[in-house]
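Entry 14. Two folds queued back to back today. First construct below, sequence then structure tokens.
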Amino acid sequence: MLKSLDFLNQDILIAVQLPLNRNHIKERIEQVHSPRLSYGVRMMLAAGLTFSAMNVLVKAIPHIPAVEVVFFRSLVSLVLTLTILLRKRIPLLGSNRKVLFLRGVFGTAALTLFFYTLQVMPLASAMVIHYLSPIFTALLAALFLKEQIRLPQYLFFLISFAGIILIKGFDSRVEWLDMLAGVGAALLSGAAYNCIRWLKFGEDSHVIIFYFPLIAMPTTLMLTLFVTGWVAPEPTELLILIAIGVLTQFAQFFLTRAYQSEEAGTVAAVTNVGIIYALLLGWLFFGELFGLGAFGGMVLVVAGVLLNVFYREHKKRAAR
């Protein structure tokens, strides 16, 4: 039995006893005995690979509003996740419904803003700005999960934010409003990741994933019909939209398993390897090139996040 924390208010923590299932036991054994990458890191690497493919597809259909893309993505996710839950006879709504609901809300808003930035920014710029999410994950984890942040880490955070300013200053294709949308997506992603972290031992990973389409599909449908307007996709575009949904379904599963297996803010930084894919894919498919200043900003963002991870790992080893 392990203790997990369930919160109803920001300042009230209630300890509850939750069982550790077979998958979690297997993951813990692998983490202790494997000399290679931990289970959580491997899951995050898999998530990063599938997310990179999804990002290219989202950018390939810029005339379809981001909120409509999220609707199709959530529709595919709903069908796939519901099928798995029913086949495994897992209760659909879970037990910690308030936190699950928040996970769905944060995830819906974050994905909509991120898809928007993919459509209006260079691919690598949008992805690098979204890589601020580990920083927001760590900051929110310190606030709600009581994970400690030391003074040097704040310096690393500032380095990353300085990189964002450089990207904006040296890349005229990045507008201030679009940049703020990207930062907002990263912040909301950090909030969603901490909800996943909070639900670590109390919910099946498929239930956590299920709450995204449960919230996203009706929300984005209403926004599409009454705010942005419906854009009928061509047959090829419809296939792309379905592929986006399938890829992100796999990516969300890998992501959820990663955050259930490692500390918030540590595994998140592994996705920084995706910037290499973004630069190559952006150049290959969209002819995107970057000047030295904008590229330097990307390096600062990634460096700040990685320095934070290395510092945390050093402190953990020193404490053993």
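Second construct, same run, same settings:
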Amino acid sequence: MLSKPQSPQLRVKWLAVLCTLAVALTCWQHRAHRSGQQSAPEKAAQRIMWPLQSGVTSALGRGHDVFVSLIHARSLAEENRKLKEEIDRLAAEKLQLHEYYLEYKDLCEKLGFVISGEAKGVPARAISRSSTPGGPKVTIESLDGRELEVGNMVMTQKGLVGRVVVAQKSVGEVMLLTHSDHAVAGMAQRSRDQGMIYAASPTDASEPLLQMEKVRGEADLRVGDVILTAGLSEIYPASVRIGTVIRVQTAPASSRTLRAIIKPAANLTSITYVLVVRSAK
């Protein structure tokens, strides 16, 4: 049902009422301002509009924050991705450094000594092992690329290994103490008795042994004696540990000659890192 249109007289009447109300409110406001106060309608309007204004301002502030966050979200995501990649890279470097540390620690345990005097050592690692009629030989390679020389003494932290018999730049072949062609003058640390040390006759022992014979005079050799190099040759300097006496017996050739069976100080069956003394020749 359609509403009945208002008559022009009614519109004029309402317009007159609104104008009268506006004039009254204005007069009221001016009168209140002259006395330094606010009019009642202004106070009512402020009480009504203040919560609305506060809510609108707060909503606009939150909207601004959301808008700024949306603008920077992409750059923040990219920055987070780069930071994660950097963290992963640093973690990988830390792991690699730890592996280097363990390798260095292992090397120090095997070569953790300094030769006194003028001799300088070249660290090397075993790269192969071969069998020959006289016994095994080990091929080594210097870790820093320095050249090896025939006659260089080879040792570990525990004791003497042998000498270089073939050299090609940084690679050398080592004849071990237990090779049948090897011999070195030795001396008992306690009694100072001397004799030549070479490979013992093959036995049922789990590892190769050495023997010392031709001891001068009334020899005083005992189980547990430490045997060192005597320093009587140009190849081996004095006081390098060879091994420990594990058994003393009479030599078959002469009852006046003692034979000391010696266990090598260095583990000749499992050689990894060695020190090559280049100036020992």
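Quick look at the second one. The chain has two domains: 70-112, 121-280. The mean pLDDT is 79.
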